[in-house]
């Protein structure tokens, strides 16, 4: 008899794919997906979109309107730092570092405080080797 297949793998030992493919069209609703792999894709796509914006205009650093990338993005960033899955959280932190450097609202004292509270009160600063 064969051993049971782990829940996180297919029969071929491949990682289980995300339940959906994230695109710019479904990015907003996908940010709150229950599937951590979908959320991780969202954070990666946001990082790519913001990085492309910076590549096109090097002088835009600290001046980009995040809501021009995704509606209400500024109001969503603090929650990203509270992701409970370490894989998704790593992708979120990568995006958040770029957001802090590139986006205008990140320098707002209330926004910065909100992001800092989220980083401290939840999972980002816990003792997980892959996030430190």
List keywords for this structure.
5 helices; mainly alpha; 132 residues; 0% strand; disordered N terminus
Describe the structure.
- This protein has helices at residues 27-30, 36-56, 77-80, 86-102, 109-121.
- The protein has 132 residues and is mainly α.
- It has five helices and no strands.
How is the topology of this model organized?
Blueprint: H1 27-30, H2 36-56, H3 77-80, H4 86-102, H5 109-121
Helix pairs in contact: 2-4
* Low-confidence segments: 1-13
Give the class from helix and strand content and strand pairing. mainly alpha
Average pLDDT, rounded to a whole number, is: 82
- Spatial separation of the terminal alpha carbons: 41 Å
SS summary, helix count: 5
Major sheet summary line: none
The shape, in one word, is globular
Reading the helices and strands in chain order gives: HHHHH
Q: Helical amount among residues, as a percent range? A: 40-55%
Radius of gyration: 16 Å
Beta-strand percent range: under 5%
């Amino acid at each position: 008899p064969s051993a049971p297949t782990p829940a996180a793998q297919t029969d071929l030992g491949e990682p289980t794919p995300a339940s959906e493919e994230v695109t710019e069209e479904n990015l907003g609703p996908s940010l709150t997906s229950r599937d951590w792999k979908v959320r991780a894709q969202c954070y990666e796509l946001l990082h790519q979109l913001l990085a492309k914006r910076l590549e096109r205009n090097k002088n835009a650093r600290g001046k980009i309107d995040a809501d021009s990338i995704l509606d209400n993005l500024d109001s969503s960033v603090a929650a990203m730092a509270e992701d409970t899955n370490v894989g998704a959280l790593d992708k979120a932190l990568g995006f958040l570092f770029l957001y802090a450097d590139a986006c205008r609202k990140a320098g707002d004292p209330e926004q910065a405080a909100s992001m800092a509270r989220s980083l401290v009160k939840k999972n980002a600063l816990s003792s997980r080797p892959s996030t430190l």
